[in-house]
Task: structure prediction
Amino acid sequence: MQVDIDIMEQMDFEEISAPLVMQKLKGVRRNSAELGPCEVCASHGSEMFLMVLAEPFEHDGETKFAERSYTFGHEKCLREFYEQVRNIPAAQAMESINLMRQRQHG
Ligand SMILES: [Zn+2]
Result:
């Protein structure tokens, strides 16, 4: 049986072990009273940020990025969290993000 798979479908968490890059870190205009607490430290703040982590991959000789996660929190917390996960396989990093969320939501 022949199966056609396009490039994005091949970008599976389990198959890619390239380290993550911080693709974006941008301030969000609403504060955490509306959006919920920081996903890293679980406390509220007035200046909150959204961090996009992405996996680099080669396609037609160019480096492209597949967005993998959106994490919300204080700038400092997000940067520290990124330092912890940047050199581990992406699948493992996603796992830590999920665990972090589960801890917060009980
Ligand atoms: Zn925080």
Q: What stands out?
A: Strands lie at 21-28, 48-59, 62-73.
